[in-house]
From TrEMBL:
This is Esterase. PANTHER family: CHOLESTEROL OXIDASE, FAD-DEPENDENT OXIDOREDUCTASE 2 FAD BINDING DOMAIN-CONTAINING PROTEIN. GO terms for molecular function: oxidoreductase activity. Keywords: FAD, Flavoprotein, Oxidoreductase. Belongs to the GMC oxidoreductase family. Coiled coil: none annotated. It comes from Methyloprofundus sedimenti. Its cofactor is FAD.
Length: 352
């Protein structure tokens, strides 16, 4: 069943603004505005790995995009190189941090004429955007709401086991994992993974939902609680997850083993180890995560909050959301009541 679009959404204007990443890759931004022109600054929303900008627009009554527009914000959704709207590519966090996010921010600034913007960043959009901020590449961003993970990725023992031992086996046959294999498994490795997932996951009948859990965490499911999703969203997500390159998993495994983000490509603009370098940013961070996050454990954001707070006290904030996990913070049927007001409250604060 497809949810009816609420009347106010018909009055949105939506523009796709192409931009070119620093290495020439063609990417885009989606600007969504309500009936009235925005009265507040642009907010850039940055999605995670193997999804797309649309992940912020699940079929729930009120999405984070709706909530921001209702508050007067100018909403910009960034499709960076990890977006499944583009051909699968061997991206790294380094490339996103150096090439994608700085150009996305510059494009929003150029299109709107403002000098400062705010951002809501999720998962690998958050790690890579945090890298851009810490490297001093996005000084125009003054407030950053980060969900799930930023500087310190911490995962469960089972997730680390999979990353350490299963990843090299998969790599013999494929450069990508793809939760959409649950719907269509075109290759031998796709069939093997799908069989493995179907043998070990019995939490629901949605093959993509189960494969997402296998790919990104260690729960049943890993990225949300079924109780937090409406039926339409559980069905919708089948087409919202696709290829993610193993080279990204290799980088995040290195980061997990070190305990914080490290770069892997030797770009001179990025520090080798992000904790060892002084952050070149004055942005205020509001760190969020779900208490039940089974993709990156809540310890991830706690560590980063403590790291940033040691550098500047009483400036950054941390919210650990009870009864929420990883993506239901945005996709949850009750997120408009439970999480969006907190996110918006953080955007509304002035930095002093
Ligand atoms: Zn499910």
């Amino acid at each position: 069943m497809v949810a009816e679009v609420p009347a106010f959404k018909h009055k949105y204007t939506e523009r796709v603004i192409p931009f070119t990443a620093g290495d020439g890759m063609a990417l885009n931004l989606i600007n969504v505005q309500g009936e009235k022109p925005p009265s507040k600054c642009p907010v850039l929303l940055v999605h995670g790995a193997g999804v797309r900008a649309n992940i912020f627009r699940a079929p729930v009554e009120v999405t984070i995009v709706d909530a921001l527009i209702a508050q007067g914000y100018d909403v910009w959704l960034e499709n960076w190189r990890a977006s499944i709207d583009f051909a699968p590519n061997l991206w790294t966090l380094d490339q996103a941090a150096l090439y994608d996010h700085p150009q996305a921010v510059k494009t929003v600034i150029a299109e709107t004429g403002v000098s400062e913007i705010k951002a809501i960043i999720h998962c690998q959009g958050s790690t890579s955007f945090t890298m851009s901020a810490m490297a001093g590449l996005i000084p125009e961003v003054t407030t950053i709401v980060s969900n799930a993970v930023s500087l310190h990725p911490v995962v469960s023992k089972w997730s680390l086991f999979k990353l350490t031992y299963l990843l090299p086996l998969v790599k013999v046959m494929s450069q990508y994992l793809n939760p959409h294999w649950g719907v269509q498994a075109p290759t031998l490795i796709a069939k093997i993974i799908t069989l493995l997932v179907n043998l070990t996951h019995h939490e629901c009948n949605n093959a993509v939902c189960k494969q997402v859990s296998f790919t990104y965490g260690s729960g049943f499911p890993a990225l949300w609680s079924h109780e937090n999703l409406n039926e339409e969203t559980h069905e919708w997500l089948k087409e919202e997850f696709a290829a993610v390159p193993l080279c990204f998993f290799e980088q995040i495994t290195r980061c997990i083993n070190v305990g914080n983000l490290v770069s892997v490509q030797g770009f001179k603009e990025l520090p080798d180890d992000f904790v060892q370098a002084t952050p070149k940013t004055d942005a205020r961070f509001a760190f969020f995560t779900g208490a039940n996050n089974l993709c990156f454990l809540p310890q991830s954001q706690l560590n980063t909050y403590e790291y940033f707070s040691a550098l500047r006290q009483n400036y950054h904030t941390l919210h650990i959301l009870p009864d929420y996990g990883h993506l239901d913070v945005f996709m949850g049927k009750n997120a408009a009541q439970d999480t969006f007001p907190l996110i918006i409250q953080e955007l509304e604060k002035t930095n002093t």
